Amino acid sequence: MTQRSSELHSASPAQSPSTAPSKPQAHTNGGQTAGGEGSDEAVVSRRAEGSDQDGMKKVFVRTYGCQMNVYDSDRMADVLGPQGYRTTDSMDDADLVILNTCHIREKAAEKVYSELGRIRKLKDERGPGGKPLMVGVAGCVAQAEGQEIARRAPVVDMVFGPQSYHRLPDLIARASRGESVVETEFEIEDKFEHLSKEAAKPGLKRAPSAFLTVQEGCDKFCTFCVVPYTRGSEVSRPLAQILREAEQMAAQGVREVTLLGQNVNAWHGDGPDGKPLGLGYLLRRLAEVPGLDRLRYTTSHPRDMDDDLIAAHRDLKELMPYLHLPVQSGSDRILAAMNRRHTRDDYFRLIDSIREAAPGLALSGDFIVGFPGETDQDFADTLDLVRRVEYAACFSFKYSQRPGTPGATMADQVPENVKTARLLELQGLLADQQRAFNRSRVGMRMDVLFEKVGRMPGQITGKSPWLQPVQVDGPQDLIGTIQTVEIYDTGSNSLFGRLIAGHTDAQLSSTSPAKEAAIDA
Question: Where a domain ends, among 432, 459, 491?
């Protein structure tokens, strides 16, 4: 595993592996969040073959925050399968409960303690002679809080950070012997080698879309962000290991892979000639994997968007025409205070280069309003940047102080009422842009990867090349296939379409989505 070293500073509870520092008040989005990232919370419920056999224990995994946590929760389920566990979507049935936590949300630690209070009541209700319940806290809150969780919540048997998931069987064994387990060290050990072996077990069937972590950590040290303290320095997985896991996923039914990293476009490897490889090269190799029809990646830093990666958006039909590229602010003064290491003009030049290479590409991003010292003019600069770039989707946040980060101790903290007013104005503009982008898809024919049944009878739901949900009337046996759909209407976030007769799986795949958009627009 390749690691970039950086100086780490001690930090108290702060923020998750994401560029976003606070709870989204409300956001417009295309299905991605910053830094990876995802849903506010989700439950892992995936049953391996034979999991209904008597005698198997049940594990309930509640996942908070980013897409990388979703990936990590899936890998924990993989590791626990051979240990006799199957996943359940009911905490009441569980023998083991794991909270996979995230620091991106405001008061994230207190939310975890509140959930632990409910779990303690469940454990008390079972009583001394009832079904035993083991409790684990994982993820970035676990990494930041460590022993404090064990002290404040005696119901917890295990506290372990993101680098320890592959050692779950040992942690469970230690906890079963009565040991209070706290594992939050950043050990230089290839956890992914262990995790990918468990994910390769035969008979496992996966959903059509999957996440694949290729990079962890960040060395940028933005002043609002705690990623280096909860996920560590930038670490890149080896090329061969990534390709092997992608091939396993394709064999298990995955059609679309989203590469994950706190700073995913900082991924680097070593070529056979010793020359460094970048994310553009990795995407080209993944495009060669049989069965993988779609590739995405998130989240990126503007400073790591190199020419080869931009060229991949031009050259690879498998690389979807959607890029999440956070800028955070449109003010040079605030960008400098955030330690972003680029200017607004740098960002504009980068966007011009990307759009020249891939004219049909849609952009999403993240914005923070009310960072310490932000003036009315700084905020006006942000609005100006948004108008000039024109986003298809965005996440927007009010700045909130994260202990242990430089921003938390800066002078000139912006009053809450000012932050709220600015956020509402920004979100109004972003929502208008998202609606305009969605309306521009009406009348267009596009490839849609169908992933699940819809909310209405006879409806199935898929994903457009631009990450929009697409609803159509169609049979469930189309789930897992790519079909041509004509869009006839839009909703608040979704597109509505009809299947095109005679266009079966991936008929349009000979033309890149970006080029198809240019043809149909």
Answer: 432
**Do 182 and 65 share a structural domain?**
yes
Residues 284 and 261 both lie in one domain: yes
The answer to whether the Cα torsion of 204, 210, 215, 218 is positive or negative is negative
Q: What is the pLDDT of residues 137-178, one digit of tens each?
A: 998 888 878 888 888 999 999 999 887 888 889 999 999 998
Residues 412 and 451 both lie in one domain? no
Query: Residues 185-211: what's their mean pLDDT?
Result: 66
Q: How many CB atoms within 10 Å of residue 341?
A: 14
In order, the DSSP letters of 119-164 are: HHHHHHHH-TTS---EEEEEHHHHHHHTHHHHHH-TT--EEE-TT-
Q: Do 416 and 497 fall into the same domain? A: no
In whole angstroms, give the CA distance from residue 171 to residue 183: 9
Tens of pLDDT along 415-460?
A: 999 999 999 999 999 999 999 999 999 999 999 999 999 999 999 9
Average confidence score pLDDT of the chain: 83
Of 406, 432, 458, the residue at which a domain comes to its end is 432
Strands (E) across 331-468 are located at 362-369, 393-398, 445-453, 459-463
Q: Choose the weakest-confidence range: 178-192, 271-285, 357-371.
A: 178-192
Nearest Cα to Cα of residue 468 among 322, 261, 297: 322
pLDDT at res. 150: 87
Residue 116 lies in a domain: yes
Percent of the chain that is helix, strand, coil (3-state, to 5)? 35, 25, 40
Q: Among 341, 404, 401, 327, which Cα is nearest to 371's?
A: 401
Tokens of 26: 């409300």
